[in-house]
Amino acid sequence: MNLYSDYRVKIYEYNSKIKETGYYLKPIHIVHKSLGNKKIKYLYFGRYWYKVVKKNKGFRWIYVGREKPDPMLPDPPIIPFEGIGVVVDGEDIMLDEKGYRVLNEVAKMVMKESLDSLINRGKAGTEESAK
Questions:
Q1: What single-letter DSSP state applies at residue 113?
Q2: Model pTM?
Q3: Strand runs labelled E in the chain
Q4: Structural domain contains residue 126
Q5: pLDDT at 31 over 60
Q6: Three-state DSSP class for 5?
Q7: 118 domain residue, yes or no
Q8: What sections of 18-114 are H helices per DSSP?
C-alpha cells in the first residue's frame, strides 16, 4: 500500500475538513468472503459516501451513495485508484489489466519505477531474507 499512502493522507485531510457536515468519504470498500477453507479479500477503490449520525453512545454510518451528496461540500481530492478492484487470496494479489495499467502509472509517478520493478525488487528482498 506504499503507492496509496500519499493519497490516503489527502483523504484523511479532506474528511477532517468536512467533518462538521456529518459526511465521510470512504475511499476503499473491503469485502471478506470465505470459499470453503479459503478466505478471500476484495478491495474496491472508489468514492463511497456516508452520513455519520450520533446514536446513543456511538455512531451510525448510513451509506448515501457514490456521488457527492451535498453540492456545498468541497470537491474531494482526485485519487487515481478509483475504479480499481483488487482480489487478495493469501499472498496472491490479482487485478485486471486496466487496474494493472493504472497502478503501473501511479508507481512511475510516486515511486519513479514501474510496477514490475517494484514487484521484482520485493521478490528479491523476500528471497534474500529467506536465506
A1: S
A2: 0.77
A3: 23-35, 38-55, 58-65, 85-89, 92-94
A4: no
A5: yes
A6: helix
A7: no
A8: 97-110
d(C-alpha 127, C-alpha 131), whole Å? 7
Residue 112: inside a domain: no
Count of domains for the chain: 1
pLDDT tens column, 45-97: 999 999 999 888 899 999 999 999 999 999 999 888 888 999 999 888 899 99
Which residues touch 30 (CB under 8 Å, ≥6 apart)? 41, 42, 43, 44
Strand partners, 44: 29, 85
Pairing label, strands 85-89, 38-55: antiparallel
CB burial of 111-122 (b: ≥16 within 10 Å; e: otherwise) equals eeeebeebeeee
**Number of other CB atoms surrounding residue 81 within 10 Å:** 20
The residue with cell 475538513 is: 17
Q: Which domain holds residue 58?
A: 5-94
- Specify if 59 maps to a domain: yes
C-alpha cell at 107: 508507481
